[in-house]
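Input:
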Amino acid sequence: MDLQAEFEALGGWDRRRFLRPAARVARDLLGAWLWTESDKGPVGGRIVETEAYLPAGDPGSHSTAGPTARNGAMFGPAGRAYVYRIYGMHLCFNVVTGATGSGEAVLIRALEPLLGIESMVERRAGVPLLQLARGPGNLAQALGIDLSHDCQDLCPASMGTDHRGPRIAFGAEPLPAHRVAWGTRIGLGKGQHLALRACLRGSRWVSARRALG
DNA sequence: TGGCAGATTTTA
DNA sequence: AAAATCTGCCAA
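Output:
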């Protein structure tokens, strides 16, 4: 099927898909479409790499010590964005999951660019196609995600013409289990032992190749 | 291909 | 002081 046709055939977003535990949502998001709207239409692609951050007992999660000014979105309803600045210069984009107040989310680490590639090239200034949206900071830049999107609802009842923020739509069919590879999360000081990083097995678009199951 | 330093600023 | 990162530079 043609890419544009595949994109248009997506049912749209569904908040119920985000009400599940983060590790489950991390898996379900592989193969889902993530995009933002621009003057020239949708900009984004197919998600190939995610990381789950658990509500409790996860020392690697921002939510581990309870709500703060930064992580407030994590304790809000599922299906909203959690966007934060890291290392003083990059942004990371997450989807809040689970029950309201539980403090869990899924970090979107990489996607396969499929929609509005020209816009991503423009934003990423001379970067090769392979690296357009590889790694969470790069992905946020390619899609034009910024701090104003923090706490934004990814699943509005209707999409007004002025909606520019990120959107996610799941594919009709779930990805078969053998297409999913799990590994440990990247860049953490604590909680490194947990295998909560999900990758589309064999995808060239993932951000790191190390130790996938 | 792999390791490391540097950029840069908010956060707890 | 450390951080859910990225890039360029170096060595092998």
